[in-house]
Amino acid sequence: MTKSTRERIEAKRRKGRARGIIIGVLIAVPAIAGVAWLANQASGRRSGEFVEIPQVQVVEVMSSAAHVADDTDPGPYNSDPPTSGRMYVSPAVAGFNDVGDVESFGEYPAGSLVHSLEHGHVIFWYNCDVLSQSECEAMKDGIKQVIRAAGTFKVIAFPWPSIEEPLVMTSWGRMLRFDEFDAEIAEQFVRNFRLQAPEPNAP
Question: Does the pTM exceed 0.85?
Fold first, then answer.
């Protein structure tokens, strides 16, 4: 084989390798971009991006959000549980409240809880009366996990036996009813509506 023939063959091989590299890059770049886009979408959901929850109800904000004296009835409210309305001077503290904590709220716990809604809290109103004991404990554990994942920041859970469902979540002017607890939807409700209230910077 002459030198010129070897050079032509080698040149053809180099050209083939270069073409293969270019084709590989053309295939890889869109694939990598697609994976990056999907990762970015998932990261956005985790980091607080709004994702629509079709079942969320918009509840008309009541015309009065006045403060009333402690131990007086702040109602009536236009929904059960309430999403706005008259309130006590002091809001409720973030965290999980069990049945044993109810007494410390007085006769009308909604007075302080609605004030927390005005400050941008999200509230889990739960009713274990419609569940078995094991179902109740599982739901409460799930709610506690969501509260911990939210850093216990402006998230409250409170027993509320007047509702028909095991769980209703509210923020200011928003409500979501659950026939059964769903941690993913609950977490997204927190991301969507926490701080969406008239006084989000208040404690």
Answer: no
